[in-house]
Amino acid sequence: QVSLMESGGASVQAGGSLRLSCVVSGARVSDLCMGWFRQAPGKEREEIATVDRSGTTKVTDSVMGRFAISRDNSLYLHMSQLKPEDTAMYFCAAQGLSWIGSSLRCSGQYGFWGQGTQVTISS
Predict the structure, then answer these.
(1) Residue 51: helix, strand or coil by DSSP?
(2) What is the per-residue burial (b if ≥16 Cβ within 10 Å, else e) of 82-113?
């Protein structure tokens, strides 16, 4: 069973930087398709950045150039030039894995979630 735990959230002023971490138990980070999501009060959950098993990363347009995703034994979200609209609860998530023939593939569904870490940006 995969379990995830985020850390690194904080209250900072606009223009600042933060690095969020996600510790993964029960699997190797490099074996998983993982992502960072955020949810602000009254808003829907938003996918921020993803990394697949090959290490290919994607970042959503709204944070392009300010946020980056990386991994080693943990998953990270590097955030810079923070804005008040970045205020949200941030979650890391992982997709399940399944065998397709002789290949292990990500399921396409994020079935494992951490409990979140709060990021608050003041103007």
Answers:
(1) strand
(2) beeebbbbbbbbbbbbeeeeeeeebeeebebe
Distance CA 42, CA 39 (A): 8
Determine the number of helices (DSSP H) and then strands (DSSP E) in the chain: 0, 11
CB within 8 Å of 31: residues ≥ 6 apart: 53, 97, 104
- For 51, the token pair is 């990394």
Q: Tens digit of pLDDT for each residue in 9-21?
A: 999 999 999 999 9
What are the tokens at 12? 């900072």
Give 28-85 pLDDT, tens digit per residue. 999 999 999 999 999 999 999 999 999 999 999 999 999 999 999 999 999 999 999 9
Residue pair 22/34 in contact by the 8 Å Cβ criterion: yes
100, pLDDT greater than 90: no
The number of beta carbons lying within 10 Å of the beta carbon of residue 16 is 14
